[in-house]
Write a structure and sequence with these properties.
This protein has ten helices and ten strands. The chain is α/β, with parallel strands linked by helices. It has two domains: 1-79 and 172-253, P-loop containing nucleotide triphosphate hydrolases (Rossmann fold); 93-169, no CATH class.
């Protein structure tokens, strides 16, 4: 079943075409990767699909409904979550508090109840803590529940951001370079986390530079160059595509 469909989406900035007529489909329960050289338009494409940017042209459908131009806040209520290339962690909070923040859509936000600390609020807070602890354990952070965020290593913070995104209970999770800055062991570990998340039924859309990880994880791959689609297919098809080899290695296509 097609969960996400992007059709002929385009975006320019000051006359520079960042993304031009890009189309793709993501099936529910799959891992779909977007790759390409620096400046290919990958993050811009992410921002268009997740509501950060308004497309100049083209449409985006989520579960068959048009969502292009819909704000990130509204998309979050529709099951869309994402992480960012640059960490967006609240360093003045504990690790588990960061994860609990991600569950804000599922809380009773009645201010009077919160001020009075009614039993229902206290009970939900305890439940939320337990749920956040389970999410942290699922991404390999079970030993850091009470740790302060600023005491965690960069690799652990990458996992923490994924746990916080999962607290939103997404249907589809966009990961923007989750392995950036990680050593090979950390990259293998984050790949295992992504695979486990997919196995829970969450669809993954991934932007990543680590080709070994992309080839190992992806059901399908979109290759971009200069804001356009270079090719799209399975890992095996992409690996042997002469245009992809030319884009990455500089050989004649």
């Amino acid at each position: 079943m097609t969960l996400l469909e992007v059709s002929n989406i385009s975006k320019s900035f000051g006359g520079v075409n960042a993304v031009t007529d890009v189309s793709f489909r993501v099936h529910a329960g799959s891992i779909y990767s977007v790759i390409g050289p620096n400046g290919a338009g990958k993050t811009t494409l992410f921002n268009l699909v997740t509501g950060v940017y308004l497309p100049d042209h083209g449409v985006v459908h989520l579960k068959g409904k048009p969502v292009h131009g819909v704000s990130p806040a509204v998309l979050a209520t529709m099951g869309v979550a994402r992480t960012f290339q640059n960490l967006q962690i609240c360093m003045n909070m504990t690790a588990i508090e960061n994860v609990m923040v991600g569950a804000h859509l599922h809380l009773d936000r009645n201010p009077l109840k919160a001020v009075l600390r009614l039993p229902s609020i206290r009970s939900r807070d305890r439940q939320l803590f337990d749920e956040a602890a389970e999410l942290m354990a699922s991404v390999g952070l079970g030993n850091y529940i009470h740790a302060h965020a600023d005491s965690l290593s960069y690799g652990l913070l990458k996992r923490l951001e994924i746990a916080r995104a999962l607290a939103m209970r997404p249907t589809i999770l966009f990961l923007d370079e989750p392995a950036a800055g990680l050593n090979p062991n950390e990259t293998d570990e984050i790949a295992d986390v992504i695979r486990k998340v997919r196995d829970t039924g969450v669809t993954i859309v991934l932007v990543e530079h680590d080709m070994k990880m992309v080839m190992r994880l992806s059901d399908r791959i979109l290759v971009m160059e200069s804001g356009k689609t270079l090719t799209e297919g399975t890992a095996e098809q992409v690996r042997h595509d002469p245009q992809v080899i030319a884009a990455y290695l500089g050989a004649p296509a």
